[in-house]
Amino acid sequence: MSIKWTMPIGASVMGESHKTLNVECQDSFSFLYDKEKKWLAITVCDGAGSSKNSSKSSKYVSEQFSRELILIASHLSKKPFGQWVTDSILQAILSIREKLRSRNATDDLSDYHTTLVSVLLGPPDRLGGRSGITIHIGDGAVIGGKIGSDIDNDQYILDEDFYILSEPQNGEYANETYFLTETKWIKNIRLDPIGELDWIAIATDGGTAALLNGDNALRSTFLPKVFQDIVSANTQQASEILNFHLTSPDLNQITDDDKTIIVVFDQNKNLSDLKYIVSKSHREDEEQTSSELFGFFPKDVDHENQEIRSAFRIKKPRRHVVLLIIGILALTSIIALLLWFGDRQEHADPMINTNFLSTKNEMMKLKEPATRSPSRPLNDDLGPQMNTSQEKD
User: What gap in Å lies between CA 259 and CA 222, rounded to an integer?
Assistant: First the structure.
């Protein structure tokens, strides 16, 4: 019996910021079946913008880790699921790290930083009743759901049941995250089960911006439209359609990062019969405004686009904006303090030089406040998370 999932549909596109800076795309993805097509491994990686060789390492890690997962799957076909699976995954990462050192003749992997977002899908009876497992270090996300139906309106609800199977893990700011190539990588790895679902999407950080809004809900104007366009296409055409949506100018206004998304469907469902695919949030909006037409970032409701973009930016403040605000507040406070102190001295002793305030500018040489990533809790079985976030851009 072959795996229930369709052939993965994936696309990876260069971000606008990389085009401007003439930097190659640092996202990579791969997928691999076992010989009997009972198991499927999918991996996406996002290289750090601050690491000069991250595009090479993201490609190598994505391909190598999928191979490692299929090797683990071959053992899962012969013996029951257990703690040994976790050990095997950790050993696979150790092996990849060692190969990176050997291939590049260096013990320092800081020039090869990359995230890791991966899934292993297979027979539930070999995975302890699960449909699969996620393996995740850093940002990016794995999401999935069950498709419901609204017979009266001839609609199918993509996210009738919606799950964030593995959420992004950032530092304090949007351009900070954790990498497989860091010294303390083991403190930031997350393994989670995948239940019975109709579809799954795996994405890098930029792809996640397309999939989820600021509240971590499914973005109603992207994936439902993509699904509607690709369900009746073959795999190659579907990947081209996904690529087209990922290069949308409206999506580029939400994120200028590289964007990678891979989706798979339950092939037991005849998705080609789905005429109208919407999300729950869009359906609720339709009930409130019957004149609103569904589309991919429709231009006739631009005010909604602005709300979406604002919500996303609020959740992930950029470093330079925060530093600017902190600097202005600090400067204002020091000026007020100097003025108050000068006024007090002037009234206390008339012999004091009242022109001393003219030198206050020399006293106000501020340093930009350093930023640190907060420590974040991790799964109990892996221990407390270490503060090892790094800048991506």
Answer: 13
Q: Are 48 and 303 in contact (CB under 8 A)?
A: no
d(CA 256, CA 25): 12
Nearest to residue 116, comparing CAs of 147, 90, 145? Answer: 90
Residue 148: pLDDT band (50, 70, 90) is: confident
Nearest to 69 by CA among 102, 44, 104, 98: 44
Instruction: Count Cβ atoms below 10 Å from residue 368 Cβ, excluding itself.
Output: 12
Q: List the single range of 7-21, 45-59, 112-126, 286-300 with lowest mean pLDDT.
A: 286-300
Handedness of CA 337, 343, 345, 348 (dihedral sign): negative
Q: What digits encode the pLDDT tens for the residues 228-273?
A: 888 778 888 999 999 999 999 888 888 888 999 999 988 887 666 5
Counting Cα atoms < 13 Å in the Cβ hemisphere of 156 gives 20
DSSP string, 59-113: HHHHHHHHHHHHHHHHHHTTS--SHHHHHHHHHHHHHHHHHHHHHHT-S--GGG-
* CA atoms of 134 and 182, how far apart (whole Å): 20
This prediction's pTM? 0.71
Decide if 40 contacts 280 (C-beta within 8 A).
no
Q: Which CATH architecture has domain 9-315?
A: 4-Layer Sandwich (3.60)
Phi-psi region of 155 (alpha: psi -120 to 50; beta: other; left: phi over 0): beta
d(CA 176, CA 170): 6
Largest interatomic CA distance in the chain:
96
Angle among Cα 77, 82, 85 to the nearest 5 degrees reads: 70
Q: Which residue has the tokens 């490692």?
A: 68
Q: Per the structure block, which two tokens stand in for 199?
A: 């579809």
Here the tokens at position 248 are 């949308």
Question: How is the chain split into domains, by residue range?
Answer: 9-315
With a CB cutoff of 8 Å and minimum separation 6, the contacts of 186 are 90, 382
